[in-house]
Amino acid sequence: MKKLAVLLVAAAFIVPVVHGQTVLSKNAVGYVKVSIPPGGNFNLVAFNFRAVGGGDMTIEELFGTDQLTQGVVPTLADLISFWNGATYDSYFQKADGKFYSAADPFGASVNPTVTAGQPFWVQSPSTAVTTNEVYLMGEVVGAASATQSLQTSLNHLNSPFAADLVMTNNDYMAEGGTGGLVPTLADVLSVWNGTGYTVSFLKSSGAWGDANDPFGADVSPVVPVGVGAWYDAKAQFDTTLDRPYTYPAD
């Protein structure tokens, strides 16, 4: 996936308040550029921002009306798929700019939300012949920390902050993760690398190991900003991430 570094911009917004007063608020906004390869191929990407002003962003707000390949049915359009813990909820955009469920393409339009740190698949239609470059833009999260709940089995994972998720910055074992001598006995992290996965596992020591070399040296897995990953947990636990930058701060 082609990816640009996050661009931080001090953007001024005029916010009206009571009695005719106004408040000038400065926010940091940014973006990542992701690629949707042609010919029905796919990419696991992530949204590392929030809506301007805070909160989740809808997919209409995230993609706009001129970035995705549109079609009357899912097979003719770019497909956006979110993991719900058991299967995928998939959506596509028609020429009216609205999104529709791939499971009900002729039903009413829908507009689900995307949470900061939420990965999802993007897939081109088989008829696409060129790579589609898409910009994901939003406000940089300024919260001091963020907690993610990891369920038993597969979880989509990325940082809710506009920065790479460095796995060694957290003590996943202390938070409830499961370490093991070999990958089959431990929590496993699979980071999308554009064509497949780079796989690591949580060791009994709390360090991370290379799943292809379980008795080798420790590794430091990183989930890049804009890139999605899987965390396969042996048991449910919550992990809390601290904001990895000083600005912005809520």
What does this structure look like?
By secondary structure, this protein is mostly beta strands. The chain contains two helices and 20 strands. A hairpin with a 5-residue loop joins strand 6 (88-93) and strand 7 (99-101).
Rg value: 19 Å
Given as residue ranges, the uncertain stretches (5+ residues, pLDDT < 50) are: 1-25
Range of strand content: 35-45%
Order of helices and strands: EEEEHEEEEEEEEEHEEEEEEE
Shape: globular
The chain-level mean pLDDT equals 90
Order of strands across the main sheet: 12-19-14-15-16-17
Number of helices: 2
Proportion of residues in helical segments:
under 10%
- In terms of quaternary structure, the protein is single chain
The secondary structure category is mainly beta
At a glance:
With 250 residues, the chain is mainly beta. The protein has helices spanning 59-63, 172-175; strands spanning 9-16, 22-36, 42-47, 57-58, 79-83, 88-93, 99-101, 113-114, 118-123, 132-139, 145-150, 153-157, 165-166, 188-192, 197-202, 208-210, 213-219, 222-223, 229-233, 237-242. It is globular, with a radius of gyration of 19 Å.
Task: Provide the descriptors you would attach to this structure in a database record.
single chain, 250 residues, mainly beta, 6-stranded antiparallel sheet, 5-stranded antiparallel sheet, globular
